[in-house]
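REQUEST FORM: STRUCTURE PREDICTION
Request ID: SP-0412
Submitted by: Lab K.M.
Chain count: 1
Length (residues): 144
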Amino acid sequence: MSKPDPSTLPCSPLDETAGLKYFPRMTAKIRLHAQGRLWEDLHANLGKGSDGALAGFLHVDYEDIKARVLQGGSDEEILEWCQERSRPLNDTDRLVWNHYVQTLGWNDHISAILAKRKADGGLERRDDIQTIAHYIDVDEGRRP
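STATUS: Completed
RESULT:
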């Protein structure tokens, strides 16, 4: 399995903006796609999957977030904009969302998808890959 060019990849799903995991990955995917540089394997899930889940969690439509990202600004400014449009996040909100991101694929509704992705990538024997976030980091070359 060939690895993508690192310049076409967003950051890890475990990276954070203002204590919120995955947000910088979603914004980076939007920016890279707009520049025509996003790894093609990531195109199909733009606005879906974890992107859609995060937009729903923030109570802001993904297309609105995308438009705001493309206007420019830092991830912190964009997250603040999201909260102004919906609701401020508190520490419990961050704890709940971050737990979701950190454990997605581990004994839940995504477990079968994780198992298939591991099998398709020849990683079915990698017991250390127990979540989607870990799979993504291995698939994109951030973890051995």
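NOTES: Strands lie at 16-17, 20-21.
Reviewed by: T.R.
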